[in-house]
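User: Show me sequence and structure for the first protein, then do the same for the second.

Assistant: Starting with the first protein.
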Amino acid sequence: MKKVLILIAFVLIPMIVHAETIKLKSGKTIEGKIVERNDKFIKVDRGIGVGIPYYLDEIESVGEKTAISIDASGINEQPQGKLEEILEKYSKMKEFTCKFTFYKKDEKGPKIGPPVGPNESFDPSKIGELAVTPETTQSGVLKFRKPLSLSYHYNVKSNLDYESKEGAFVISDGNDLWSYDMPTRSSPESKPEKYVLTQKVKDILSLRADMLKSAEKFKEREKRFQDPANPPLVVPPEMENYELINPPVYLPACVLEPFKNLKHDLITFEGEETINGEKVYKFVVKGSQENRKSIHWIGVQDGMPRRIYEYDWENDLVANKMDLADVQVGPNLPEEEFKFKNDGTFIEESLSESMPDMNKMLKQAFDTPPEETFTKFFENPLSEITELKGSGMFFRGGEAFIRFRCSKNVILKDAQDYTEYPQEIAESADYFIKSFPEDEGMLKNVNELTLKKYIIKSQPGKYPEEGRILLKNKKHNVYFFKMWIWVD
């Protein structure tokens, strides 16, 4: 069939004379100008002034530097043109409703053991035979209105019983957001209580922006620690969740807006197909360090997704499947669809009052303020130091690092536990050069540096492990401090 489509395309399209990329089935790629084509072969001038014939049954695809596909109508389309067409149609869409189904089974992901009850014991030797690959189906009715109004009522079925849920929802009118997961019990005998959490959308977006900014800051810093000769294993993340949705609900932003958060230069147009009687364009997003390979089927009529397949982190097997059915664009949904109505069975709990504390906690976790680190580990008041800067990141463990100038005597808390470590001055200086590259000049001369170190270890070979180092430049009275703690 593919050969027939290629044949039709070459017969119907007039001769062109600009540079093309021809990919042969052998894997070889040819660059040149197509100077002649018929129903058996094309002739390509590769810069020598003579057309060399390549037979159609040898050819995999023809494209201009990027892959192009030939659909059943025999028209070659460049990916950028189809992308612009889809995005233009999406721009005209104001709202839509559909049935949404998400299916996940990552064969190469981690396997999960069975939960252990309060009076049960688990035999680690049987983990191999008892562990299973999590398999989840999340399905429901999705309604969306630009820019931030959302109504998603869904159920979750999983082979892990504790992951299953019914009657869950996320609702937003663009100003407030209501979310309900599943009933909770204070004890096995108590009556389940249904809590609906409410948040301000502006608080959610502000917190998200701060987290992304901090994560990007650390990502740039980590690049300085990487060894070019031994690059780290990169595990591309799943597609980015919609900005108002939190895990474990998985609703990628590109479900609501085609190709959202995906680089357009990684997208190729593969042709036209039909899903449930509707014409769709098929696009493939190439896997990279920033995203996994994915396939998107987008409605020709309205520019909305109909199906999305996302591969595992090795870009080998399909791990996530998303289907949109009964898509209706512009159904004029009433405002009530995007507001929560309490039927008296729910307990509403606002997170607005706790948001400042939550923001502070996450700020410290993703970008620990240097003042916090200094006051925690030094006796001196902040008024005695200058040029303080640094950061930190903590989850179950992490590290914090600061630098500052002080002309007075610096007093460490737990000073008696620190030991002089001259043998590690060079190694520590290298760490701080990568953390504060602007201070490289005062960290290069090891004769100007002194080092104190404090290590806490649990049983041999076991975590947590905690450590602290203080590096001082005696000439400039500049101090560099690092602490870390890792919990297994």
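Switching to the second protein now.
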Amino acid sequence: MARDRRDRRGRLGGDGAERDLCGGKGCGLDWLQLSRLSDGVTFRDVRLAVGSLVVAVVAALGAGCASDDASVADFAEVERIGWVLSAGIDLDGWERVPDLSFENGGIDGSTGCNAYIASYSVDGSVLDLELGNMTGLTCPPPGGDVEAAFVAALERVEGWAVEDDELVLLDGSSEELLRFERRLQS
């Protein structure tokens, strides 16, 4: 019959026999010593605290990775959709709204006056735009101002996000530059 090996405080290992934790190399640590780390603190308490800390760190790291992965996955939802400017530039007195669409590393759209093309690359929430060619129509007022403001904002884009089903283009400080809504299908 197995003998219960509890010490006077009811902890296992209390038979007084040393259980060397160093594989016979004589480091002087045994289970009984580890089970009594400090007044009332047991090895189990320390194990639980360390385990909780490890779980918290892994969860925090995992959350960071998950958000990056989600951003990359979300950009696929942005592609092949027509986006129409909804905020970021004053369009008063101008009826033609700037737009854009992303597909296979290329952008095509309208400044509200001229058609343009651009290229893009995405790395997580970072969006790198490179403006390309633009048609050369003269835009009557206030179309020229709308176009100039739109192109200037596109040149400052460094990031992106999707908020409330709208595409938001961000500057290097993650401040909103332009906001787009989905183009209605006709």
